[in-house]
Amino acid sequence: MAPKNPHYEAKTDKQSTDNTKELILKPRNLSIVWGNDDRYWRMPDPQDPDSAAELLQVNWLEVTGFINLSRGKSYEIGFNVSLTPDAFGWSGLQVYIMAKIGKKGKYVLKKQYVIKPTTDNQRFDIPFLSDKLKIDVPTFAKEDTVYFGLYEVWSGRWKGGLRVHHAFVREI
After folding, report:
1. pLDDT tens digits, residue range 99-145?
2. pTM beyond 0.85
3. Which of 90, 127, 137, 169 stands 20 to 30 A from 77 (CA)?
4. Could you say which DSSP state residue 30 is in?
5. C-alpha to C-alpha distance for 43 and 168, rounded to whole angstroms
């Protein structure tokens, strides 16, 4: 019998708000490296659509998604997250938000320090509103699938206590 895949693969049912200019992807619609291993992640309760994926501990943070978008438009991409009271490993550490059009596209990226909010469990967006990650889907693009992700794989440092509430794609 083959061992269970330790990586959580995105479900294909997309969730969006009533606002057609914003698409919300809940954690079950995202792929999470080590997400099926309960030593590293606590995945959301399938019965609670608003529950977050909680990072317990990893040294390889990779949360990714993809979505087909309209050509000739611009979008802002990011993640809504929070930190638990016992979050660790984030001091002085930058995470990357990266996006590209098509599998062979060139990445657009933003890097940002994760700064613990003054109150526990306060939700915030990465990247911050003041430093949005913008991607343009050209009118004559060969592909309209945008691949994106939240990454911290380069430091080798262990980190934990990050809750991923959702990813968002907003038309701008």
Report:
1. 999 999 999 999 998 877 767 778 999 988 678 899 999 998 889 89
2. yes
3. 90
4. S
5. 19
